């Protein structure tokens, strides 16, 4: 049995005046996978995501999300997706539980309180549920933001640079969350400028450069594009991340107790 792609893009174009942002993007994202879309500033990553989320109309080409055309079936696309931007869109005057209940009510779910409690447990936020979000760490707020995005169980999740501005431990918390989502079958399209993030999280990686996808595949496939490595014996030094986590104890969950 063949499963249809969660996201399929063909010949997508977008320009602003004489400036071409997307010059014919082609990309397929299989259902239940994590795809990292890499590119420098101005490469067109956010423009691509905005088109796929029906927030922006393309000039040409086609794109489908969960089988729905973004141009002709925008309502069905919006019902199939959730978008988490670069900064956590949470109400810091409310508690964590109140944020989740509010979104569940807006989505007209039958039991908003139970939905909130289930997500708090799933994202290891139950102990902080009754505190105002303004007292939470950056990693906890980002996990809450992602939890809010999952209310209604959308099959496709867009994460636009989700770890921008986070400290190393908070980044690891978000990475664990993305892995957990992928394990449950959620399709994730992740834009990032952090190459280590793509390396740790993505099943497949696409490189967007000057408005086009210039390379796409698994990390192993992309490595084959380079000449064979020269074998040298060198002393391996710990990375700064290794040093930092050793100094602070490496407790990824420490932030949840604050």
From TrEMBL:
Q: Does the keyword ATP-binding apply?
A: yes
Q: Which GO terms describe its biological process?
A: response to antibiotic
Q: Where in the cell is it found?
A: Cell membrane
All copies of the ABC transporter domain together span 7-235
Which Gene Ontology molecular function entries are recorded, alphabetically?
A: ATP binding; ATP hydrolysis activity
Pfam families named among the record's database cross-references = ABC_tran
Q: Which InterPro entries match?
A: AAA+_ATPase (IPR003593), ABC_transporter-like_ATP-bd (IPR003439), ABC_transporter_ATP-binding (IPR050763), P-loop_NTPase (IPR027417)
Highest taxon, organism lineage? Bacteria
Main location, first listed in the record: membrane
Q: Membrane topology for this entry?
A: Peripheral membrane protein
GO terms for CC?
plasma membrane
Q: Which SUPFAM superfamilies match?
A: P-loop containing nucleoside triphosphate hydrolases (SSF52540)
State the name under which the record lists this protein: ABC-2 type transport system ATP-binding protein
**Originating organism:** Modestobacter roseus
């Amino acid at each position: 049995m063949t499963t249809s792609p969660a996201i399929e893009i063909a010949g997508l174009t977008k320009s602003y005046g004489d400036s071409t942002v997307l010059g014919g993007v082609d990309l397929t994202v299989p259902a239940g996978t994590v795809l990292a879309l890499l590119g420098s500033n101005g490469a067109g990553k956010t423009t691509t995501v905005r088109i796929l989320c029906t927030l922006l109309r393309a000039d040409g080409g086609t794109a489908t999300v969960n089988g729905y055309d973004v141009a002709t079936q925008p309502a069905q696309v919006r019902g199939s997706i959730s978008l988490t931007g670069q900064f956590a869109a949470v109400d810091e005057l409310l508690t964590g539980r109140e944020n989740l209940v509010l979104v569940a009510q807006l989505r007209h779910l039958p039991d908003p309180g139970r939905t909130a409690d289930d997500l708090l447990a799933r994202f290891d936020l139950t102990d902080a549920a009754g505190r105002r979000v303004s007292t939470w760490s950056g990693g906890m707020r980002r996990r809450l933001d992602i939890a809010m995005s999952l209310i209604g169980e959308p099959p496709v999740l867009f994460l636009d640079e989700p770890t921008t501005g986070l400290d190393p431990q908070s980044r690891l918390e978000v990475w664990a969350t993305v892995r957990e989502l992928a394990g449950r079958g959620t399709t994730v399209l992740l834009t990032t400028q952090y190459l280590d993030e793509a390396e740790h999280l993505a099943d497949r990686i696409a490189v967007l450069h000057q408005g086009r996808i210039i390379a796409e595949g698994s990390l192993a496939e992309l490595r084959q594009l380079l000449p064979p490595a020269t074998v040298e014996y060198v002393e391996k030094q710990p990375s700064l991340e290794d040093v930092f986590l050793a100094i602070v104890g490496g407790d990824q969950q420490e932030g949840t107790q604050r």
